[in-house]
């Protein structure tokens, strides 16, 4: 089965990134989302409706909350985002707010 996911927009509101490294952290975030989401989809696939061929124009993944005591890393945020998106794709879009590592 071929799975194609297109993320058009990702909103990171009020996320404290390390200063002076935004380009590098953005690249790490993108890479982490792609690789972690690919692992999750390969391991556990999609929810029944999507596995049956249903297409969705949009999903809303549950929001995440960054730890306020330390700056978020692109890699850590990317993994957390991938888990949130995978949960929505697997039919668990109404789960409680997740935490970013």
What does the secondary structure layout of this molecule look like, with pairings?
Elements: H1 22-44, H2 48-51, E1 64-65, H3 74-89, E2 98-99
Parallel strand pairs: 1-2
Helix pairs in contact: 1-3
How would you describe the overall organization of this protein?
- The protein is mostly helical.
- It has one domain.
- The chain is 43% helix and 4% strand.
- It is built from 3 helices and 2 strands, in the order ααβαβ.
- It has a two-stranded parallel ribbon with strand order 1-2.
- Strand 1, helix 3 and strand 2 form a beta-alpha-beta unit.
- The C terminus is likely disordered.
What's the short story on this structure?
This protein is mainly alpha-helical and 101 residues long. It has three helices and two strands; from the N terminus they run ααβαβ.
What are the main properties of this structure?
elongated, 43% helix, mainly alpha, single chain, disordered C terminus, 101 residues
Large-scale geometry: elongated
Ranges where pLDDT stays below 50 over 5 or more residues in a row are: 92-101
> How much of the residues is beta strand, in percent?
under 5%
The amount of helix comes to: 40-55%
Number of strands: 2
Largest sheet: 2 strands, parallel
């Amino acid at each position: 089965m071929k799975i194609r996911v297109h993320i058009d927009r990702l909103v990171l509101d009020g996320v404290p990134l390390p200063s002076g490294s935004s380009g590098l952290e953005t690249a790490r975030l993108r890479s982490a989302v792609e690789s972690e989401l690919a692992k999750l989809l390969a391991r556990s696939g999609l929810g029944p409706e999507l596995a049956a061929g249903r297409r969705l124009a949009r999903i809303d993944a549950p929001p995440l909350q960054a730890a306020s005591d330390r700056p978020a890393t692109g890699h850590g945020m990317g993994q957390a985002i991938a888990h949130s998106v995978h949960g929505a794709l697997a039919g668990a879009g109404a789960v409680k707010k997740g935490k970013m590592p």
